[in-house]
Design brief:
With 128 residues, the protein is α/β, with parallel strands linked by helices. The chain is built from 5 helices and 5 strands; from the N terminus they run E-H-E-H-E-H-E-H-E-H. Helix 1 links the parallel strand 1 and strand 2.
Length: 128
């Protein structure tokens, strides 16, 4: 068992997943990758994540669908949404439901890492 913060990335684009994995590992995070919402949901280990990075648009369940599922099941996992197709109503919905941040692709690595830090801090406060 590791004491490193765990960041889970769910995105159907392999190049995005791999780039985020490299970035996150380079600064010391433990990273788990999923290519679909379904794979993440079936895994079912939601509370192991200190930060969940969700693509908004994916085949099958969207990132917003996953957020609703987690909330309805009583899981309080800090979420960052990433999207190439965001709009204001979608962003408002995600933020009202508790998302930490929403970032438009392509995004700045520093801004992304700052959002991850916010998620980890929120997760640690919740567990304390």
């Amino acid at each position: 068992m590791t004491d490193k913060p765990r960041v889970v990335v769910v995105d159907d684009d392999d190049s995005v997943r791999r780039a985020l994995e490299r970035l996150l590992r380079s600064v010391g995070y433990d990273v788990e990758l999923f290519g679909s919402s379904r794979a993440f949901v079936e895994r079912g280990e939601y509370e192991r994540a200190d930060c969940l990075v969700l693509d908004v648009r994916m085949p099958g369940q969207s990132g917003l669908d996953v957020q609703r599922l987690l909330i309805s099941a009583g899981h309080d996992v800090p979420i960052i949404f990433i999207t190439g197709h965001g709009d204001i109503p979608m962003a408002a919905q995600a933020l009202k439901a508790g998302a930490v941040d929403i970032l438009a692709k392509p995004f700045d690595d520093g801004i992304f890492l700052k959002a991850v830090e916010q998620c980890v801090a929120k997760s640690r406060r919740r567990r304390a």
